[in-house]
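Final report, closing paragraph on structural work. Over the funding period we assembled a curated collection of sequence-structure pairs, and we close with a single example.
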Amino acid sequence: MSEKVESTGMDLLKEVANVSGKPGLFRILKPSRAGVIVESLDGKREKTLIGPTARVSVLKDVSIFTDGAEESVALSDVFLKIREIHGEEVTLSAKTSSDKELIEFLAEVLPEFDRSKVYVSDIKKVISWYNLLSKYIPEAFVATEGEAEVAEPVAEVSAQEEVKEAPAKKAAKKEKSKA
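Its predicted structure, as stored:
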């Protein structure tokens, strides 16, 4: 994807996908006629062609079911909350931890998650995905802090531009009414 330079923070999740039946995460490089070319997010960085029949889930579109007013919470929000609580790495092992420990982990991060729809296997994926992203795409978490600071000045500039444009619009209306 040519937008890598423009992508910041959790927007990078639109370039990362999970492929059903394959372990780990993959960075989406580009579409092709026969499917999608992806690169594994691990030390090997192997490039693979994923066929059109494969189930590919882009992480930006993944969410977790909740019991609250909102039906679900975006995975990016969950990752940011994990970052606040656990730092750069979740030390809880997804493979060796008990079901109770995994449920307590997600309850700490997202207390309102729907226990009937979110399975232990889903929690294991969230932990492993978070650790992979934190290790191989740390800029996904670092850049989000700078986005909040940049957003405010942009809003102020657009408000000032609106004030300047208002008199110009009134003048244009007067000219139309004279004609």
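Residues 1-7, 143-177 have pLDDT under 50 and may be disordered. DSSP finds four helices and seven strands in the chain. We thank the funder for supporting this effort.
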